[in-house]
């Protein structure tokens, strides 16, 4: 199975959607990284790097959500003071 990639010089750049799809496959652990790499024609070390990046950034998704909720709560409280 080939993948859509953009050659910029000597490096290939893959769309974020494809990276996310592949990382989700890795997380499912139904296939080895070597198998997934072979299916997509991407070196296993690249897939390991994508997986590690996803694992590192995963907590920030929830931190940002918490910050957004806190900001919304404080804005609501400010507005409700004006109403009362």
UniProtKB/TrEMBL annotation:
Against InterPro entries, the record matches this protein to: Transposase_8, Trp_repressor/repl_initiator, WH-like_DNA-bd_sf
GO molecular function terms noted in the UniProt entry: sequence-specific DNA binding; transposase activity
Query: What Pfam families does the record tag this protein with?
Result: HTH_Tnp_1 (PF01527)
List the protein's name.
Transposase
Task: List, in alphabetical order, the GO biological process terms annotated in this UniProt record.
Answer: DNA transposition
Q: Which domain of life is it from?
A: Bacteria
Q: Which SUPFAM superfamilies match?
A: TrpR-like (SSF48295)
């Amino acid at each position: 199975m080939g993948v859509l990639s953009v050659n910029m010089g000597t490096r290939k750049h893959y769309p974020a959607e494809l990276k996310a799809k592949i990382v989700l496959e890795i997380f499912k652990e139904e296939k080895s990284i070597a198998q997934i790499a072979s299916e997509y024609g991407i070196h296993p070390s690249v897939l390991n790097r994508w997986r590690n990046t996803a694992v590192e950034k995963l907590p920030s998704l929830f931190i940002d959500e918490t910050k957004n909720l806190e900001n919304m709560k404080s804005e609501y409280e400010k507005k409700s003071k004006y109403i009362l």
